[in-house]
Amino acid sequence: MGYESLRDWIKTLDKAGELKRITAPVSPILEMAEIADRACKSGKGTARAGGPALLFENIIGHPGARVLMNQFGSARRMQLALEVNALDEVATRIEVLLRPQAPTSFMDKLKMLPMLAEVGSFFPKRLEGAAAKSAPCKEVIHHGPAVDVLKFPILQTWPQDGGRFITLPCVTTRDPKSNKRNLGMYRMQVYDGQSTGMHWQRQKVAAEHFRDRMRSATDDLTGAVDIMALTAGGTTAALSTESVPQTVLTKIRGQRMEVAVAIGTDPATTFSAIVPAPPEVEEYLIAGFLRGKAVELVRCETVDLDVPATAEIILEGYVELGELRTEGPFGDHTGFYTMQDEYPVFHITCITHRKDPIYAATVVGKPPMEDTWMIKAVERVFLPLMKLTIPEIVDINLPAEGVAHNLMLVSIRKSYAGHARKVMHAIWGLGQAMFTKCIVVVDEDCDVQDVAEVMLRAGNNIDPERDIQFTLGPVDTLDHASRLPNFGSKMGIDATRKWPAEGFHRPWPAMLSMTPEIKARVSKICKDLGIG
Question: Does residue 251 fall inside a structural domain?
Answer without folding.
Answer: yes
